[in-house]
């Protein structure tokens, strides 16, 4: 079994730097588009066989060191009772937008196996199919990032409605966040119980805050989840699974982020990773941080950038190579394949 | 004359912290909307009397310490020969998108008085109307930020076409940037000659780069402009005007930004301003950095945040209070009025 990824998460010695790619099971792969041609996005998420099929593709095609479950961070919003639709080219639509005490009150904190059993089924299926080749990562959105979609009713440019709720009606925001946090905590426990060997919490929009607002309105809920997961794992499991915390636009927030209690911190590309390691306190395991659009560079330039990141990250307690954000659909797959080979080759030296 | 703003720019002692607000002449003001009801956005930019009228509004209404010319950073794109339109609720449209050697070749490096004389006329008119009440700030987009609009044909989510040009066709990007940089340099000189008493260079999208890419593909052109402006001012003027450099999402890039050669550095709200001062080298004049959406907080909370920023910025060589980005249209004007009063009152103590 290739357990390089799990060892790196724990800060143990590894023979080379493991790599996986955010959104590695995605539209840039023709093999993914072939499956997607037969089913819409939400059907793919809700059909364990299809989700498992596309999850496996990058393991074979890229040779990455971990699989990450194909799913979407908005699945729990549907389970909580909000209408959830995806339309080609328009992004997600959630309705009604959650902006009143009444809409918050109607939201459920659902039983994950009952309402999102298809996710856990996909995990169980994948563990069998992977048969130990590489570990399987489960994931969820962080409460704040999940809540932005629920409040805005979709994606947003400046998160006006979200910040207005936070700044104008902090008690309403807290009530919503209690439900979202409870839901995501139980969802991650269910994923781990089903066989996820690591979990990543995505706080994609955490970077829209000032440091003190980030601590109060985003980080505090992530800390609550991680604390809860840790005491639950201590009771329920012989070995805890690593927890990765990824925040988008991290650069101004690293001194806050380091208190999350995660095992691994995801770093986006807008900061030098050695600077991030230092600001995380010097003893962190980090994941990242190549600009996803660097994948359009000629291969020799990609290699220069990958080598620079590997060198800079050598100051960390552990490093998992990744892009600083999801791979974009227009990316040439051969460049991603080349990147995986480069990272393995260079880091073996 | 209130020259607190200019003194702060030069790092001189001031009786209180000066404040102005990015996009202070804007849609959040009913008085602005009244003018805008009579003319479309581009007509307002191109009519010196209308541009001057809305530029003056926040001086009377808010009591800010500087006026900033009402205009748009895309005006030079039109002067270079690209089609420029603004449609309500859709953002700017630039056509054709500049993505080929042919389209770059057709672009002009125009004479600013000939092609954008309405801007310089507005400046001359404003200097008369202001009659020394407060200084007048001129501005332009930084070459990279301007080029993103020219390449994408408008706004963008991930700047795919821009980064593809940079990474796939660096010589084409350099040719475009030579023309944009030349245009903006001459445009800023013309603004200063017409009477602008400070200039701000907006690199709103600079934060989409990794630090080394930012240095190479954005900062290098800003340095060229600032160097050129400085030697021109030395020759042509008895006293140089201060140059402010604002970058969006600065947090990971401050160690690069500090080499720009500007007098003042704009800081967005995603980082504590004392941290920014330290990372700019400790001897910087800074401008910022309240989250624009904090303007939805109750006034006592706005005051807490303003006081915190004033306290943190006391480590700087000089501080000009501002929001970390433009004020949003939904903002209650009375909160902006209150902010100006607070900053003056607290900093006088």
List the keywords:
seven-stranded parallel sheet, 15 helices, TIM Barrel, alpha/beta, 349 residues, two-stranded antiparallel sheet
Task: Please describe the topology of this protein.
The structure is a homodimer of 349-residue chains.
Chain A: H1 4-9, H2 30-36, H3 41-46, H4 48-62, E1 67-68, H5 75-79, E2 83-87, E3 91-95, H6 101-106, H7 112-130, E4 136-141, H8 143-152, H9 160-168, H10 170-194, E5 198-203, H11 211-236, E6 243-247, H12 254-257, E7 264-266, H13 273-279, E8 285-290, H14 299-312, E9 318-323, H15 333-348
Parallel strand pairs in A: 1-4, 4-5, 5-6, 6-7, 7-8, 8-9
Antiparallel strand pairs in A: 2-3
Helix pairs in contact in A: 4-7, 7-10, 8-9, 8-10, 9-10, 10-11, 14-15
Could you describe the 3D structure shown?
2 copies of one chain form a homodimer. Chain A is of the alpha/beta class. The longest helix of chain A has 26 residues, at 211-236. The model of chain A has no long low-confidence stretch (mean pLDDT 97). The first copy, chain A, contains 15 helices and 9 strands. Chain A is 50% helix and 13% strand. Chain A has a single domain (4-348), classed as TIM Barrel (Alpha-Beta Barrel). Chain A has helices at residues 4-9, 30-36, 41-46, 48-62, 75-79, 101-106, 112-130, 143-152, 160-168, 170-194, 211-236, 254-257, 273-279, 299-312, 333-348; strands at residues 67-68, 83-87, 91-95, 136-141, 198-203, 243-247, 264-266, 285-290, 318-323. In chain A, the strands form 2 sheets. In chain A, strands 1-4-5-6-7-8-9 form a 7-stranded parallel sheet. The A-B interface holds A 158-160, 163-164, 167-168, 207-213, 249-253, 255, 269-272, 275, 291, 293-294, 296-297, 301, 308, 324, 328, 330 and B 158-160, 163-164, 167-168, 207-213, 249-253, 255, 269-272, 275, 289, 291, 293-294, 296-297, 301, 308, 324, 328, 330.
């Amino acid at each position: 079994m290739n357990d390089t990824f799990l060892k790196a998460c724990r800060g143990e010695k590894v023979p080379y730097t493991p790599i996986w790619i955010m959104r590695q099971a995605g539209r840039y792969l023709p093999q993914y588009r072939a499956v997607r041609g037969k089913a819409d996005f939400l059907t793919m998420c809700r059909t364990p066989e299809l989700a498992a099929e596309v999850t496996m593709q990058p393991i074979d095609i890229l040779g990455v060191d971990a699989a990450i479950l194909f799913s979407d961070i908005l699945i729990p919003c549907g389970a909580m009772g909000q209408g959830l639709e995806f339309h080609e080219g328009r992004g997600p639509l959630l309705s009604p937008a959650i902006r009143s005490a009444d809409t918050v009150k109607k939201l459920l904190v659902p039983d994950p196996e009952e309402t999102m059993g298809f996710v856990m089924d996909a995990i169980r299926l994948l563990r069998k199919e992977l048969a130990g080749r590489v570990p399987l990562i489960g994931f969820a959105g962080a409460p704040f990032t999940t809540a932005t979609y629920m409040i805005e009713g979709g994606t947003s440019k400046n998160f006006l409605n979200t910040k207005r709720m936070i700044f104008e009606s902090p008690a309403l925001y807290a009530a919503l966040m209690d439900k979202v946090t409870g839901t995501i905590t139980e969802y991650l426990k269910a994923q781990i119980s089903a066989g996820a060997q690591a979990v990543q919490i995505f706080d994609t929009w955490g970077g829209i805050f000032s440091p003190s607002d980030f601590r109060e309105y985003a980080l505090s809920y992530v800390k609550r989840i991680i604390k809860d997961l840790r005491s639950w794992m201590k009771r329920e499991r012989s070995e805890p699974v690593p927890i990765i915390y990824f925040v988008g636009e991290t650069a101004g927030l690293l001194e806050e982020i380091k208190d999350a209690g995660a095992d691994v911190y995801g770093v986006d590309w807008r900061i030098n990773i050695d600077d991030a390691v230092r600001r995380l306190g010097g003893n962190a395991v980090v994941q990242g941080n190549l600009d996803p659009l660097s994948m359009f560079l000629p291969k020799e330039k990609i290699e220069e950038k990958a080598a620079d990141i590997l060198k800079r990250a050598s100051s960390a307690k552990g490093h998992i190579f990744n892009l600083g954000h999801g791979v974009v659909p227009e990316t040439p797959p051969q460049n991603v394949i080349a990147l995986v080979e480069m990272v393995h080759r260079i880091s073996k030296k």
